Amino acid sequence: MARRSFAIIAGLALAACTLGPILAVLVRAGGFGQISAADWQAVRFTLVQAALSAGFSVACGWPVARALARRRFPGRGLLVTLMGAPFILPVIVAVMGLIAVFGQNGLVNAGLGALGLPKLDIYGLHGVVLAHVFFNLPLATRMMLQAELAIPSERFRLAASLGLTPRAYFRLIEWPLILRIAPGAFAVIFVICLTSFAVALTLGGGPRATTVELAIFQAMRFEFDLGRAAMLSLIQLALALSAGLVALKLSRWDGFGLGRGRAVARWDGRGRLGRSIDGLAVMLAAAFLLVPLGAVIWKGLPGLALLGSDTARAALHSLMVALGSTALCLAWALPLATRRGELWALSAIALSPLVLGAGLFLLLRPWVNPLDWALPVTGLVNALMALPFALRILRPEAEAVTRDFGRLRATLRLTSWAWFRLVWLPRLRRPLGFAGGLTAALAMGDLGVIALFADPDRVTLPLQVYRLMGAYRMEAAAGAALLLLMCSLALFWLFDRGGRVGADV
Amino acid sequence: MKAPTLAAGLFLATQASAQTLTVYAPDYFTSEWGPGPRIEELFEAQCACELEFKPGDLLPRLMLEGDRTEADVVIGLNTDVTKKARESGLFAPHGVDLSGLTLPIEWTDDVFLPFNYGHTAFVYDTTRLDAPASFDALLNAPDDLRLVIQDPRSSISGLALVLWVQSVYGDKAQEAWEKLAPKIVTVTKGWSESYGLFTDGEADMVLSYTTSPAYHIIAEDDETKKAAIFPEGHYFMVELAAKVASTDEPELAQQFMDFILSHDFQSMIATGNWSIPAALDKSEWPEGFQKLDLPDTVLFYSEDEAAALRDQAIEAWRAGLSQ
Fold it and tell me: Any alpha helices (H) in A117-225, and if so which ranges?
């Protein structure tokens, strides 16, 4: 009973925070706005790039996740943590890192030039997809790795003792796992890419790469056409929910059953072919993700010395927001870890931050001065935005726990509290740590709705990066970006590690 | 129902303390490198009041608030929004004598008061590029010239660029864009991203302002960054302040408007905001600014002309670059 009412409260809060702001904007606008032909073109481009980006991220993430799951090598833990970094980088920093590698004067072109080969041009649809894969490959990989690791070791023992051929092995173990995880991972990444704007524009090379989010930005900032902005964000929302529905329909669950939670030892992929495929997958992914990160670090080092106390203060504010967001997000996610909850939560990342900000502003204004609430609102919005990721990570595990231990619970007549404390939380520690780390890191790096709620005395670190750039201080901005990267990674590592202590990851 | 009572209490409490002038400004304004802190210091020294900046999205926020806004003055508006802002009826005449203005164009607006200006320009590094001598020369330059610009739909400088091309090329704007297209590396959301690409060496030229080199000269002692000056003319970019009609501090607001064209404010704004003061003789500009190459011909559309041409100019850009 108690769990049900928690779920209802959490669901209502979610609906209030997503639909409420859109309604507020619509009421203020006095109705819907006009959608032009160019807007539909933007919708088409948005769909194409999001589908390609999500497809490549999931397809490339699979071999990497499998390799990381069945291999042990020195530095593997560090690699798993570092590979989470691109996802949590602020957009502008990541783009600069990518350009340092793939740009006109980047490392790749320097290499091609040395070999006498023609230069590679990063700008275009392929650039947009490349950047989105850079951001989301780690997420896809981690989601699938998480699922791989959740397979009870008994299954592998059984597979090994039966002497399954690689084909049978794929059909009986891997394929069901892909079916279970890939559609959800695809949907989440698809929805993130739906709202992409600065990346799509910068790497898209021009107006052909116009996304819906840009049209919303234009409507809000330049034309002050709230009705059009609300209309466009409803289109975005509808696309996201459709993607979510399709994913839910596709993702089947066959179940691997219960194990004793012992360390996983695997016997698959021990041949030379398996070993080389795994090695190649890990090396390629590591190079693709870590070299641009290295460029960010390299460029940021000299700038670190230029940072003043105000940047340290901004970092402190960001840390506070991040921790608040994480607590809120996890408390929100636990009762919502069901199919329906996850579907609803998808709408949170599909919401345009601009419309969300304007709506919250309108809702809060009659009661309080929104400017005094800059940090709490930022924290709330970040928690909301991270909720779909947290749920994507938590739900499969949470459902598995309920299914696998439900009979035990009934037999022992565990109280809700005992169940929560003795079974639920310990079994969910690993995904909780990962989800918490992700939320904290995301909240560190997100600009969110700060534009309408900016408070001169409570600047966050990402805003500070933009301010430094706006004041021509590009070197200091690179330093602040590096600081942001380090803070995000440290938070991510702390949470993620906390979830993995003593666990076999 | 405690919140309204609490809000009312807070409202009364602020009324009782010293007078406060609330100024809405763009975000960059109030950072320690922006002009905000200096403005605050100078104004508070003469008004016996408190000046409080509220940074953020200017017009969207004001429009959302309507006449219940707490803003007394707004500073940092651009000409792209003046029409919308004027039509909203939220602003009152500034009542400042405009005879002291030193703008390169005539300015008679009685609502929006200019405080600094610049022009759109392509900034380049003299060690990497010989600048084209005219806009035409830029269009006809070899395609390996690498240019980065901003999107007119998301940035004010990007919008100024399409209006610039429109005023130079008129009906042939789309052809001009088609010629420029192969040289454009990419289009960014805002000025910061573009300028970052330029300083990183990803582009040879960046759409910026005639005043950008002043930063490099004064703050970095670097004279290699220059704005390419074209005889066809450069588009005028001005930043404006306005008094909010519903202000509850009309006298303080007026005092602030008068302060904007004062010598104190004007002699600080050049290095405070890296722009040319709106009412200061060139001989009084900082040395780095006196060294700037500035255009002889200045192009500018009134807000009505700009509003009428805007969609057409953006469409020419979109069509020209989508070929």
Answer: 125-149, 153-162, 166-169, 175-194, 198-204, 212-217
Q: B307 vs B120, B301, B302, CA distance in Å?
A: 18, 9, 8
| B153–A310 CB contact, under 8 Å | no
When CB atoms are compared, the residue of A208, A220, A470 closest to B28 is A470
- Contact between A454 and B56 using a beta-carbon 8 Å cutoff: yes
**Nearest CA of chain B to the CA of A490: how many Å?**
27
Choose from A107, A221, A313, A453 for mutation: most chain B CBs within 10 A: A221
Domains of chain B, start order: 2-116+237-290 (3.40.190.10), 118-236+299-322 (3.40.190.10)
Q: Which of B28, B159, B181 sits opposite A471 (nearest CB)?
A: B28
* DSSP per residue, A112-148: HHHTTPPPP---SHHHHHHHHHHHHHHHHHHHHHHHH
CATH label of the domain that carries residue A204: 1.10.3720.10
The pLDDT tens digits along chain A (505 residues) read 456 778 888 888 888 888 888 888 888 888 787 788 888 888 999 999 999 999 999 999 999 998 988 888 888 888 888 877 787 777 777 888 898 899 888 888 888 988 888 888 888 899 999 999 998 998 899 888 878 877 777 777 788 788 778 788 888 888 888 888 888 889 889 988 988 887 888 888 888 888 898 888 888 877 888 888 889 988 988 888 888 888 877 776 555 665 655 556 676 666 788 888 888 999 999 999 889 989 889 888 998 888 888 888 888 988 988 899 999 999 888 888 877 788 778 877 778 878 888 888 888 888 887 777 778 888 888 888 888 888 888 887 888 788 888 888 888 888 878 887 888 788 888 888 888 988 888 888 765 555 566 666 777 888 888 888 878 888 888 898 899 888 888 888 888 877 766 554 3
ipTM given for this complex: 0.81
